[in-house]
Design goal:
It is a single chain. This protein has 11 helices and 13 strands. By secondary structure, the protein is of the alpha+beta class. The strands form 2 sheets. Strands 1, 2, 3, 4, 5, 6, 7, 10, 11, 12 and 13 form an 11-stranded mixed beta sheet that branches. Strands 8-9 form a two-stranded antiparallel ribbon. Helix 4 (about 230-235) crosses helix 7, helix 6 packs antiparallel against helix 7 and helix 6 (about 250-265) runs antiparallel to helix 10. The two termini are about 30 Å apart. Residues about 220-235, about 295-320 and about 325-335 have low confidence and may be disordered.
Length: about 400
Amino acid sequence: MPIIDLQRRMRQLGEIRIGHVVPTGKTRRDGKPGTRPAKLDKFRFTSPSREILTAVAELYGGEVQPWTPANGGPAEFEVYSTTNRLPVLIPPRDAVSQWYELYAGSKCQRRCDGVTEMKSDRPCLCDPDNRDCAMTTRVNVMLRDVPALGQWLLVSKGYYAAVTLPPAAELLAQAGGYVAGWLGMEERSAIVKDKPARFMVPTLDVEITPAALMAGQITGGAPAVASGPERVAITSGRPDYAALAAVATSAEEVGKLWKQAVDSRHMDDDLAKVLKARGEALRAKQASAASGDSGPHPDDVERQLNPADYGDAPPPPAPDEEGVYEAEVVDAPDPAAAEAMWFQIMAAAGPRNMTTAQLETAFAQRHGGLHPSSASVAQLEAFLTALKGGEL
């Protein structure tokens, strides 16, 4: 049985990229040669492991060669493949994540869902019509035929990836297991300053019909571990929580289902995963609607393609081809700090005669179904303040 309060994640083997950095022929303000991101029409792989990339090259073409990130990070290896379509396994949870992010050097200063800035647990700091933060979409997949256990990350800062990938991931989450599919790339175009601009957009396709997916009939050589919908369906004597969560229209509704499951002693690890995934998906959907983001301004597209050509602000210190600082893909959680904060919460709840289950339920209700084990330190600290202040 797993440790309940330990946040688990699969090992990241490397990154799948749809661009690279090329010289501009100009000199930056710091005296270094100027570079800019440029699109590719075939996938590029980077990884610290030469052995894994050798297997990638044998499957998808290209040669393994040394690579040093533009920001001066640890040396890795890269392969320019000869394919723009990859057979993958798509995980049932966390296949796609999105944030508005602002970096200073290699440090993420802000990470926002459009409503709340997560690093400070404050309301969004950006002007919705002129954001300082850039939308960032991350896709996690397993390469079906590569003999290595772990996931590969693809990062996109484009508008079209941001609006098309999350709905697909939300639907895939209903499957309850890994789904065989394909990661591809498509070229899109937009008119920028009265001129056509072209850029690449990542895509996800699956080897299963939507009807079969919703029925849990996973195919394509990807056996699934029994998960939320399947487990709930065969459990007698309790409501079909997964089915109810699937038709819920708000994170608050999922939070009520969470409380009902806890109060009725129906909650288990599998059901918690299902409700958590559905709650997170609905929160992201609500945040997107609240942000009122109706699409990219042409200048935004141009900035994504040629950020070094804009002189209205000092150029960022060597982002990669997608504008992401590789020194920090996603802030790693601090389990020790989160655990210490949870112990403080439990201590504060003692005089109030609140059980652990009641605390978890109260936390989930305040955070749209989010379980404390997946919460940030800031969220736990805010909950502790509310508990001490008598708000619960």
